[in-house]
From TrEMBL, chain A:
<dbReference type="GO" id="GO:0000287">
    <property type="term" value="F:magnesium ion binding"/>
</dbReference>
<feature type="domain" description="Isopropylmalate dehydrogenase-like">
    <location>
        <begin position="45"/>
        <end position="371"/>
    </location>
</feature>
<dbReference type="InterPro" id="IPR004434">
    <property type="entry name" value="Isocitrate_DH_NAD"/>
</dbReference>
<keyword id="KW-0809">Transit peptide</keyword>
<dbReference type="GO" id="GO:0005739">
    <property type="term" value="C:mitochondrion"/>
</dbReference>
<keyword id="KW-0816">Tricarboxylic acid cycle</keyword>
<dbReference type="InterPro" id="IPR019818">
    <property type="entry name" value="IsoCit/isopropylmalate_DH_CS"/>
</dbReference>
<keyword id="KW-0496">Mitochondrion</keyword>
<dbReference type="GO" id="GO:0006102">
    <property type="term" value="P:isocitrate metabolic process"/>
</dbReference>
Automatic annotation (TrEMBL), chain B:
<dbReference type="Pfam" id="PF00180">
    <property type="entry name" value="Iso_dh"/>
</dbReference>
<dbReference type="GO" id="GO:0005739">
    <property type="term" value="C:mitochondrion"/>
</dbReference>
<keyword id="KW-0816">Tricarboxylic acid cycle</keyword>
<feature type="domain" description="Isopropylmalate dehydrogenase-like">
    <location>
        <begin position="1"/>
        <end position="254"/>
    </location>
</feature>
<comment type="similarity">
    <text>Belongs to the isocitrate and isopropylmalate dehydrogenases family.</text>
</comment>
<dbReference type="GO" id="GO:0006099">
    <property type="term" value="P:tricarboxylic acid cycle"/>
</dbReference>
<dbReference type="GO" id="GO:0006102">
    <property type="term" value="P:isocitrate metabolic process"/>
</dbReference>
<protein>
    <recommendedName>
        <fullName>Isopropylmalate dehydrogenase-like domain-containing protein</fullName>
    </recommendedName>
</protein>
<dbReference type="InterPro" id="IPR024084">
    <property type="entry name" value="IsoPropMal-DH-like_dom"/>
</dbReference>
Length: 377, 284
């Protein structure tokens, strides 16, 4: 049994900055600098992975809407699926395509219960690790026209995406006893904290709530909290508060209006973002984004592939269409993005065409037709 | 075990919720096996963490989350026994086995094994993030929920929030030899300490459950009915459920109600021995 050294090293910000070179400092900054990196050719190439379940049909909806507004987007489509490993593109191809194009749209990839080769890490996690997509952003906003139990919700959930409980390091040491490792590192905690504060600054948010369970996981989540507090000193205009994850969930259910920006490690972020998505209408309504320093990928915020709805023309395309809107905004095609967003908002506000998950009877194609109709005005 | 039942007297956004949340209490992520890794350990883990851009003097913490077969079988057995005795129709196991394939996979396997012995009770599984979304949209679909430690913490807090908050829900902890009764959501309420505005219903319900466990059924129902009458008839509510009364006013009213409800029993201050061993149908 190796002896464990307990040394508390006080992180020294100045020392850290001096130790790292300029390249690494830039890599710690959050929002990638898009102006120099997007190519100047007329058509923007966007990598698209349709995903499983209703993903492919939703991507078709996005394509139709983009054609209707005349967006200069060229889709490089790649099939990836853990359900059909024979037909799926290899991880190397997918990663190369995303790295080349630097933006992408992704449907939801299902993680089957048993994977080929007994691999513990899912395809999603492999893509995220390979591209270093460390931040996931889900914007939660109530949309007028839906019958919801809470109104006036407007917050953002920022979730660390590469480490934590999703490290896929599990083993059975003794028969009947399984251990799973949760990894927390200073680098990643600081990186996501900085991302959160930069994001909040960019979008004029006033308060960040760090979600943790440091009363139980004293070292791991304690490290996360310390990193958040350290970064908070650099941003005097933004208030940092901390909240334990179980209290956060209860507050989200009773008084969600109090939240502005939430930053969380991997598992809590997953749970909190799904809970928040449920508050504003479910998985069909909420778009999400994943960022690394070079690549931005737009995918639905609540990651449910809706396998049982595939091919039945019932899925709600709003989430994927809003991902498309965010993609256009990211590429600085704001006019088109605004048009599509207004069209969707109008259709939902009129409350005549609603898909099943938000309480109506319309089909997916009905919704799409009415959005296209709005775009013609 | 936390029973979340929406009562018509507390204003909530959902009605007809009656969920029993059963949470494993001793292992899982709360195993307290945490340590800061020294450079040697980091090197050996580096081979498995594919990122590889770590320096030697950064801070890395690992947490062991332990799931054992024996305890998973035990909690599953407990859940199904309660479901059977309380005439519940469905047990939902909450997990994240798509990510933690081995540990939550083991938990699910144990639940399925036990489920096979109870053919009348429906068993299904749901991933924890989907569960939270469903709880917010359609909580009436859940009946009994069983899960490991961390998800249990989160889900029980969500359910408590749905039925009125942490002041209103009682929790019970059962072991082979002991039982401990407490509030359902384990918030200490430091911010409202000493201000006489805390809601005592949760702890009063917990105390009533304890009396029932000891075999004093009538005392239990006296206390519970007294609290419900206080809120319903006399409309004395503490601030967290939308009223303006203080804790002392609430408790005074409860005491008056108890006196009204129990002239026939009378107060018997002798400590009574448990009249029977723990019965599964006494869970409330």
């Amino acid at each position: 049994m190796t002896s464990i050294l307990f040394r508390r090293v006080q992180p020294n910000i100045i020392g850290t900055l001096l130790r790292k070179n300029v390249e690494q400092i830039r890599s710690l900054s959050s929002i990638p600098n898009t102006a120099e990196k997007i190519s100047e050719s007329h058509k923007y190439h966007v990598t698209v992975v349709p995903g499983d379940g209703v993903g492919p049909e939703l991507m078709l909806c996005v394509r139709e809407v983009f054609n209707a507004v005349g967006a200069p987007i060229e889709f490089d489509e790649l099939l990836a699926s853990e359900l059909m490993p024979g037909r799926s593109s290899s991880l190397a191809d997918i990663v190369a395509s995303f790295k080349r194009n630097r933006v992408g749209m992704k449907g939801i990839l299902t993680t089957p219960a048993i994977s080929e080769g007994g691999d513990l890490m899912s395809l999603n996690m492999k893509i995220r690790r390979a591209l270093d997509l460390y931040a996931n952003v889900v914007r939660i906003k109530t949309v007028p026209g839906l019958k919801l139990r809470h109104q006036n919700i407007d917050f953002i959930v920022i979730r660390e995406q590469t480490e934590g409980e999703y490290s896929a390091l599990e083993h059975e040491s003794v028969h009947g006893v399984v251990e799973s490792l949760k990894i927390t590192t200073y680098e990643n905690s600081r990186r996501i904290a900085k991302f959160a504060f930069d994001f909040a600054t960019k979008f004029n948010r006033k308060k960040i709530t760090a979600v943790h369970k440091a009363n139980i996981m004293k070292l791991g989540d304690g490290l996360f909290l310390e990193s958040c507090r350290e970064v908070a000193t650099l941003y005097p205009n933004i208030k940092l508060e901390t909240m334990i994850v179980d209290n956060t969930c209860m507050q989200l259910v009773s008084k969600p209006q109090q939240f502005d920006v939430l930053v969380a490690p991997n598992l809590y972020g997953n749970i909190v973002s799904n809970l928040a998505a449920g508050l504003v209408g479910g998985a069909g309504m909420v778009p999400g984004e994943s960022y690394s320093t070079d690549v931005a990928i737009f995918e639905p915020g609540a990651r449910h592939p809706f396998l049982t709805g595939a091919g039945r023309n019932i899925a709600n395309p709003t989430a994927m269409l809003l991902c498309g809107v965010n993609l256009l905004q990211y590429l600085h095609l704001d006019g088109m993005a605004q048009k599509i967003e207004n069209a969707i908002a109008t259709v939902i506000k009129q409350q005549k065409i609603k898909t099943r998950d938000i309480g109506g009877y319309a089909t997916q194609q009905d919704f799409l037709r009415s959005v296209l109709q709005q775009l013609e005005y | 075990v936390i029973r979340c039942k929406s009562s018509p007297v507390v204003p909530t956004r959902h009605s007809d919720i009656d969920i029993l949340v059963i949470r494993e209490n001793t292992e899982g992520e709360y195993s307290s096996l945490e340590h800061e890794s020294v450079p040697g350990v980091v090197e050996s883990l580096k081979g498995e963490i594919s990122s590889g851009k770590y320096e030697l003097n950064f801070m890395l913490f690992t947490l062991f989350s332990v799931i054992t077969r024996a305890k998973s079988l035990k909690i599953a057995r407990f859940a199904f026994e309660i479901a059977k005795h309380a005439d519940r129709k469905k047990v939902t196991a909450v997990h994240k086995a798509n990510i933690m394939k081995l540990s939550d996979g083991l938990f699910i396997e144990c639940c399925r094994e036990i489920a096979a012995e109870y053919p009348d009770i429906k068993f299904d599984t749901m991933i924890v993030d989907n569960t939270c979304m469903q709880l917010v949209n359609r909580p009436t679909q859940f009946d009994v929920m069983v899960m490991p430690n961390l998800y249990g913490n989160i889900v029980s807090n969500v359910c408590a929030g749905l039925v009125g908050g942490s002041g209103f829900v009682a929790g019970s902890n059962y072991g082979d030899h002991f039982a401990v009764f407490e509030q359902g959501t384990r918030n200490t309420g430091l911010g409202i300490a000493g201000r006489n505005i805390a809601n005592p219903s949760g702890i009063l319900f917990a105390a009533a459950n304890m009396l029932k466990y000891l075999g004093l059924d009538q005392h239990c129902s006296a206390i519970k009915n007294a609290v419900l009458n206080t809120i319903q008839e006399h409309k004395i509510k503490t601030p967290d459920i939308g009223g303006t009364s203080t804790t002392t006013q609430f408790v005074e009213c409860v005491l008056n109600e108890i006196i009204k409800l129990t002239p026939s029993i009378g107060f018997n201050y002798e400590m009574q021995k448990a009249t029977h061993a723990f019965r599964f149908k006494d869970i409330d």
